[in-house]
Amino acid sequence: MNEKERAERLQKLQTRLEFYRDLGVEFLVSPRKPAVRREDSAAGAPLLIAGGYSGGPDLDVREEWERLIRKIMACQACPLFKGRTQAVPGEGNRQARLMFVGEAPGRDEDLQGRPFVGRAGQLLTRIIQAMGFSREEVYIANVIKCRPPENRTPRPDEVKACSPYLLRQVELIRPEVIVALGKVATDFLLQSSKSMSELRGNFGEFQGIPVMPTFHPSYLVRNEGNKEIKKMVWEDMKKVLQLLKS
Ligand code: SF4
What we know:
CATH class: Alpha Beta
Bound molecules: iron/sulfur cluster
Low-confidence stretches: 38-53
Order of helices and strands: HHHEEHHEHEHHEEHH
Structural class: alpha/beta
């Protein structure tokens, strides 16, 4: 490694540590339990495909996943299909204990076909890492699978048309905890009209699965200097970790 590369690496490390300090992370957490459920890992299944989708232990389940992804990629059930480069189904570990659900793909996600890869996505990745997981160990998806024009908030009819896909993903993954990122995901999962400030930090429930609502990473990006918001998000994630460890 030459001098320039070393300096760049140090700069990246410093940025990351500053972010963790702002979050209020006192230490980097290592989850006590494996990131996948014991009964699934015991099946000897292929667990991870970086940047793609991991297979399940059961052929039927794997086929169902493939059918679901194909259906999403070809979907024209709402007008959003007209403006997309490609649909963004979601990615990660199909046997994950922890699932993150956001709102909809943005420009970077629409171009790459992967969820949370822009600035907000990089921030989410750091939060996941601070929790002791890698991106490939959790599952990341959005309520809406195609990018709304100019990243506007999805309309209720679009949420209604698209939400069966997320519902099926949740049914197939059966995560132990879901983190709802922002208002659209929280409204859909908790069916509540309360504000994010009222809801965040307290577990709700979706299909019997605990749901922790917290601020969307893009809100953190927009309020970059606001350490209080970062700390609130980290407090929420600590509760999630506590539940996963219990
Ligand atoms: S947003 Fe969802 S419902 Fe609308 S076209 Fe895309 S995949 Fe289909």
